[in-house]
Amino acid sequence: MKGFHIRDKDLMFTFISRGILVISLISVIFPFLYVVLTSFAPREEIVTRGFFLIPHQWTINAYGYLMNSEQFVISFKNAVYITLVGTTVNMALTSLMAYGLSKSWLGGRRVLNFMVLFTMLFGGGIIPTYLVVKSLHLLNSYWALFLSGAIAPFHLIVLRSFFQNIPIELEESARIDGCGELRLFWQVILPLSLPAVATFTLFYAVQNWNAYFNAVMYLNDSDKWPLQVFLRQMMNEANGSMETMATTFQYSPAVKMAAIVLTALPLLVGYPFMQKYFNKGMLMGSVKG
Which residues constitute the domain of residue 158? Predict the structure, then answer.
């Protein structure tokens, strides 16, 4: 009887936990489906029909409008540039600093580790950071975005722990064979750390792709704005009356939905290819450290 009672509790726990997961999944999937399906609805149906999930008519006019929008195309290119260059800068600086701090023989290592931990707990603030960027003459430059958030302390600490778990014998063997530090780091350490490197590359890529606040604060030229700033401008302009939406395609909700879909599409496409590295990298970098 006692074993049966325990099994009933296990079954109830499994049922409740799966029910919570299903409800959570629906709460995430439903808004996503609404955005995707509404982006294919005609302007007139959205204005006259109100809320719906499945459109009566299907059209790609909203996507065609965005593809022909010079501002959207420029913003999309800016976002791609910021993501590629910014992620490269992030990973180069983070991995090099993490590799250096993983060496017990490094002079001043404890002080540097404390400084990294301190910046994770206490930030400099918006105004001091802005004044530093301004004094370096980086305003209205993409380098203001790249350098102001070049190294995330949490990413560096986890990556440092990952490097510390690589057997020291491999490094000693490489040095005996005449391998220098940079070559050792590039040809030995990084290939062995691929799961962790891929994980934080994904984190940095998402961070740079979604760059908004820093772009608004540091970039004055609208031609340099990334995609997230364009979305904000679109949402502000789209808060017109229903009559305006009915007569001007620019303010159609379908265009807003299509812009959201195209903004999220690169991350949705790229994430499945990184997922196998993502899980392994987080576990190996945090549990063993």
Answer: 69-287
